[in-house]
Amino acid sequence: MTSKFFKKYFIYILLTLISPHILMASEYDYNWELSASETNINVGLLKQSEVKKYSIILKNDSFCGDIQINKIKSSCSCLHTKLSKNKLHSRETSVLSFDVAAGFLSKNLYEEILIEYSNLLKNNIHILKVSIEGKVKNFAYIVPRRIEATGNFDVLQDQIPKIRIYSDDYKPICNKIQISCPENIFQFTISSDNNVYEVKCKINNNVTYGVHKGTVSINFLSSDNSIVYTDSMPYYIERKSPITALPASIYLNPIYLGETTPIQLEFKSTSTKFDLNSMSIIYCNKDIISITDVSSTNNRRKYILKISPTSDGIINEKIIFSFSSEAAGTISIPIIALVESSKEKL
Description:
CATH class of the largest domain: Mainly Beta
Strand order of the largest sheet: 2-9-8-4-6
Number of domains: 3
Strand content: over 45%
């Protein structure tokens, strides 16, 4: 009797001790959770192109049951993540490392890392969110942000400003800078004073007439000449000839067969470097066009053209003038005319 009593009492005590743990295990089986050592991270102030490294601890807070980390998603390509392990037993931890790359835009950072995880027994899917904020400031200020000039060679040189490059706190930006232009439009001279770089731009003499547009690259170099940051600035250059023709093109509608039509053609030079006395004609269809030099000075020259059509229809010709200076190049004057017979005139 006593033996049976003690046996029942022992079983009762044993169940009393074990039951709470069974209930606790059952409870945590349903209420497991993944936690992070930090869920709101402020990375502070970053310079453009700067990369900061961070890490947080992920922990399986349940007393039983494993957690599987399925996916880690970043809201921005500027966040690069790495997980030490993706399966966590009860109370086990994993390290989530990530880099925050500031990129090349000055902006406020508001990004997220979403960690998708599940209980291996129940296969329930949950999301743990880690918020990241900060601010990206300019690596350097470049003033002006664009090179733009239009005119003849002398005017272009006057229009192009000096470029100033500096940091917002006027502290040293880098060891040195390199500037390049793929079209070889400019010659750059770089000087530095009190942590401010000054760049003088000069147009190359061999730049052809017309429009040139593209991008100037600016590389910021470290002491070992490796590139720590790259910026760029667009340019638009339109080089015009200092010599203009009036008219620049000749359109006649109509002229008549058997008649001669006179046209006055005048050249002007806006630069003392180009002497119009040295200009010459390198192409002209003398069968229908004759040219008489009327007057000439250093910066002005006049011609009389006489157009004498030999048949009706369309005249599509041109006269090409050249100049002694290679920089002045050539000027082509198109001549287009509709020729009608004298009978049609009557």
